[in-house]
Amino acid sequence: MRVGVIGSRSVGERFYTRLCELVPPEATEIVSGGAHGADALGKRYAQEHGLKYTEFAPDYARYRRGAPIKRNARIAEYADFVVALWDGKSHGTANAVHTCLKVHTPVDVVICDPDSPQPENGTVGDGCSQTAPGQPAQAGTAGETQRIDHAGSRRRIGEWIRGRVRGLYWDEDVNCAGTALACLSELFGVALEPQTRWSAVGMHGAGGYRAQCGLVEGALMFTGIYLHTLGKTDAEIAAACYRFASAFEETFGSLRCLELRPTGFSENDPPHLCEGLTCRAIGFACHYIQEITGRQPVV
User: Hey, is 23 helix, strand or coil?
Assistant: First the structure.
């Protein structure tokens, strides 16, 4: 399991114990941004527990002032689980948490007030509270413990997606486009004709040519099918697909298999190399469809 550790630079060593409590025992890799504060705690955890450590550096040449936010978003997309140590003020951390929710990466957020006193037992009153937020709250007074509602439905849907993707990939050998199409149809209770499933057989980057990503194509196919059942016009469906493509590119960095799967396709690839990306992309598509239709998944 890849665990992302993100957060504010003001988060100090005294919050390391809390981080240790939140990292799942099945973690195999720690991912952070290489900055001070929370990132440094993540690196320390990897070193002390003998885990692989991966650092995502901000690309200032490409994104300038927005580089740290883009970097945190990449971590949210790459990780299987994220721990966010937030001081209640950092816009970058708050943005990364929202990205986690958009792509259905499970996230635990700890509100860390660096000015609050730390009690001996390190629990209530230390300025921290473990949460899985629907939306980060505003920081309160020094030492105040804040709790945010648990986004249980998002976590549940994310867990369902991971289980269903694994079954389709490993048990049925369905490609990425067919898997996206199948998952979204089941999430929203839409029956698919066999011809529709057959049409996705060659859509994994155009049969491996590494053109448009099959996860995008499967999601666009379902969007057209589902919005048609809701009575939307062709123009409305086309506009929704355009917005989805734009949002996907903004979130994941590209629409092309060539860039999302930079190693291409070869006999030496490990099985189902895009499984993690598939789960996050389907979660992203599910959230997008919820937003534009107001409909909730039925699983």
Answer: coil
**Beta-carbon count within 10 A of 7 CB:** 32
Cα–Cα distance measured from residue 205 to residue 177, given in angstroms and rounded to the nearest whole number:
9
Which pLDDT value is given to residue 121?
Answer: 31
* CATH superfamily label, 2-111: HUPs (3.40.50.620)
- Residue whose C-alpha is closest to residue 71's, from 55, 50, 87: 55
Q: Domain boundaries in the chain?
A: 2-111, 151-293
According to DSSP, the residues that pair with 30 across neighbouring strands are 3, 53
Half-sphere exposure of 194 (CA within 13 A, CB side): 0
Instruction: Give the number of other CB atoms < 10 A from CB of residue 197.
Output: 15
- pTM score, two decimals? 0.55
Residue 282 has pLDDT above 90, yes or no: yes
- What is the rounded average pLDDT for all residues in the chain? 81
- Taking phi over 0 as left and psi of -120 to 50 as alpha, with beta for the rest, 24 belongs to beta
Q: What mean pLDDT do residues 285-297 have?
A: 90
